[in-house]
Design brief:
By secondary structure, this protein is mainly alpha-helical. Helix content is 68%, strand content 4%. The chain has one domain (8-360). The chain has helices at residues 8-33, 37-64, 68-72, 74-86, 114-132, 143-159, 163-180, 184-204, 206-216, 227-238, 251-254, 264-296, 301-325, 343-360; strands spanning 94-97, 100-106, 109-111. The relative contact order is 0.17.
C-alpha cells in the first residue's frame, strides 16, 4: 500500500498538549522546589530526560517502524510486559512506596512497569481481535480470551495494589471489543461482571472504601481523607474565569499534595482559570476525534483496533484524572497524560503516539 505523510493535524494536537504539559509541569514542580531542591531536580530530570527526551526519540523510532511489526511480535510483547510487571515482587528488584509495590529499581533509577503492561495488552488484544474477525460474535473467541487476559492482569495488579490501572485496561479492552463488533449483550455482561468484582473489592479493601466514602461526602474529613479533593476544588475555584496567571498558583506551594502529579489539573485550573481548563479539555476531545478518524480509515482491522485501543487508553486515563480532581469521580491517582509527573508513562505514551502516526501514513480516503 502506498505510504503517505503523517496526519499533520493529529501531530499538531500532540505537540500542543506536550507544550502545555511541559509548561504546567515545570510551574507545578515549583511547589516541590519550595520544599526540597534535590527532589525538584530529580523530578525534572526524570520528566524532561526520560519522559520527554527519550519519549520523543521512541516516538520517532515507532513512526519509522511499519505497524505490521507490532502484530508479528504482539504475543511476545504482551508476555514480556506481564513478566516485567510481575517482577515488582522479586526481592532486590521491586521497590515499594506508600504501602504499594509498583516500581522496579535499577540502581538509582526507578520506573513503573505497569505502563508497559497497558501498551502490551493493547497491542496483543488488537492482534487477537483482528485474527478472530467475525468469530468475536462467538463467546469463545471474544469474551472468553478477554476474561482470561483480565484474570492474569488482575492477579498481578490487585496484589500490588493498583486498581486504577486495572480499570483503565478493562475500559480500553471493552472499547476495543465494541469496535470489533462483539455483541452488545456480551459487553453488557462484562460490564456487570466487572462492576460486581470492583464492588466486592471495595467492600473488602479499606483504602478503596475510604475513597468511595470521600467521593460520596467530600466534606466528611477535610483534614484527612478529603484533604486532597478539598484543596483541588479550592485551587480550581480560586482560578476564576481567566486564572491567576502562569506560575502564580498559591495552592501548589503549601496545600496541594503532589501538585506536579495527582493534582496537576488543579494547578492548571488555578493558573489558567475556567477558560484555560476548558481549552485543555477541548484539546483532548480533538485528540480522540482525530484519533478515531485515523482508526476509521486504516488499511486493515489490526491497525484500526490498535489505533482505537491507544486513543481510548490515553483519553480514558486523562479524563479519569480530570474527573478525580474536579470531584466527579473518586480519587484514582492516575496521571494526566502528557502533563503529570511520570517519566515512564510519558515515554511509553509518546512511543504509542509514534505507532498511531505510522498507521496514519496508510490512511484510506473515504
Amino acid at each position: 500500500m502506498h505510504e503517505k505523510k503523517v496526519d499533520r493535524f493529529f501531530l499538531i494536537i500532540i505537540f500542543l498538549l506536550l507544550a502545555v504539559g511541559i509548561a504546567i509541569f515545570v510551574s507545578a514542580s515549583l511547589g516541590v522546589l519550595a520544599k526540597n531542591e534535590q527532589t525538584f531536580y530529580a523530578v525534572l530530570r526524570s520528566q524532561l530526560g526520560l519522559g520527554l527526551g527519550l519519549g520523543l526519540a521512541c516516538m520517532y523510532l515507532c513512526l519509522k517502524i511499519n505497524y505490521k511489526f507490532w502484530r508479528n511480535y504482539s504475543f511476545v510483547l504482551f508476555l514480556a510486559s506481564i513478566l516485567i510487571t510481575a517482577a515488582v515482587f522479586l526481592p532486590g528488584v521491586g521497590w515499594s512506596h506508600g504501602g504499594a509495590e509498583r516500581w522496579i529499581q535499577l540502581g538509582s533509577f526507578t520506573f513503573q512497569p505497569v505502563e508497559f503492561l497497558k501498551f502490551g495488552f493493547v497491542i496483543y488484544f488488537a492482534a487477537w481481535l483482528s485474527w478472530a474477525k467475525n468469530k468475536v460474535q462467538d463467546f469463545r473467541f471474544g469474551i472468553l480470551p478477554f476474561g482470561i487476559m483480565l484474570a492474569i492482569i488482575a492477579f498481578i495488579l490487585f496484589k500490588q495494589p493498583d486498581t486504577k490501572s486495572f480499570i483503565l485496561i478493562t475500559v480500553t479492552g471493552v472499547g476495543m471489543l465494541f469496535v470489533s463488533g462483539t455483541p452488545i449483550r456480551y459487553i453488557l455482561g462484562v460490564g456487570i461482571g466487572i462492576a460486581i468484582l470492583l464492588g466486592t473489592l471495595v467492600y473488602f479493601t479499606p483504602y478503596l472504601q475510604e475513597r468511595v466514602q470521600t467521593f460520596i461526602n467530600p466534606a466528611q474529613d477535610a483534614q484527612g481523607s478529603s484533604y486532597q479533593i478539598q484543596q483541588s476544588l479550592i485551587a480550581l475555584g480560586s482560578g476564576g474565569v481567566f486564572g491567576r496567571g502562569f506560575g502564580q498558583s498559591v495552592q501548589k506551594f503549601r496545600y496541594l499534595p503532589e501538585p506536579q502529579g495527582d493534582s496537576i489539573f488543579a494547578v492548571l485550573g488555578e493558573e489558567f482559570g475556567f477558560v484555560g481548563s476548558v481549552a485543555i479539555i477541548f484539546l483532548y476531545i480533538l485528540f480522540i476525534l482525530r484519533g478515531f478518524r485515523i482508526g476509521n480509515r486504516t488499511p486493515d482491522s489490526f491497525s484500526g483496533l490498535l489505533v482505537y485501543g491507544i486513543v481510548i487508553l490515553i483519553t480514558v486515563q486523562s479524563f479519569m484524572h480530570i474527573a478525580s480532581v474536579t470531584g466527579v469521580f473518586p480519587l484514582t491517582g492516575v496521571p494526566l497524560v502528557f502533563m503529570s509527573q511520570g517519566g515512564t508513562s510519558l515515554m511509553v505514551y509518546l512511543a504509542a503516539i509514534g505507532i498511531v502516526l505510522n498507521i496514519s501514513k496508510f490512511q484510506k480516503h473515504l
